[in-house]
Amino acid sequence: VQLQESGPGLVKPSQTLSLTCTVSGSSITTNYYFWSWIRQPPGKGLEWMGAVAYSGFTYYSPSLKSRTSISRDTSNDQFTLQLSSVTPEDTAMYYCARDVWSDYGDYYGMDYWGKGTLVTVSS
Fold first, then answer.
1. SS3 of residue 109 by DSSP
2. Rounded Cα–Cα distance for residues 85 and 14 (Å)
3. Which end of the chain is more exposed for a tag (fewer CB within 10 A), N or C?
4. Do residues 111 and 100 lie in contact, with contact meaning Cβ atoms separated by under 8 Å?
């Protein structure tokens, strides 16, 4: 299984950041995987941003929900992050990852990650 993030490395303040994660070796519609976006600002810890489930339902971090949208393209096994109204505080390494759940609702963690892509917000 491989995940690959793609998108612009530089975004201007107030614009919308858009990144796509392309998945190979796994289908984003397979039970019971979720597909997450996570970011890590320089010198800080990891922050989960949101996820799209195998069913298509989306889940967002409460702190980012007003600015975040995750969509998917099932025919190409891709899912996309959009973060609006960015500021320099949104500068970070952005990762996509696969979450593993059981059919009973047990969470097993993220088993595959992309290598990450650095997005800088600057004018």
1. strand
2. 4
3. C
4. yes
103: left (phi over 0), alpha (psi -120 to 50) or beta: alpha
Tokens 């299984």 found at: 1
DSSP letter at 114 equals -
According to DSSP, the β-strands at 92-101 and 33-40 are antiparallel
Written as one string, the DSSP assignment of 31-50 is TTEEEEEEEE-TTS--EEEE
Contact 52, 58 (CB under 8 A): yes
- In angstroms, the CA 35 to CA 28 distance is 7
- Provide the residue-wise pLDDT of the chain in tens; the chain has 123 residues: 999 999 999 999 999 999 999 999 999 999 989 999 999 999 999 999 999 999 999 999 999 999 999 999 999 999 999 999 999 999 999 999 999 888 888 888 999 999 999 999 999
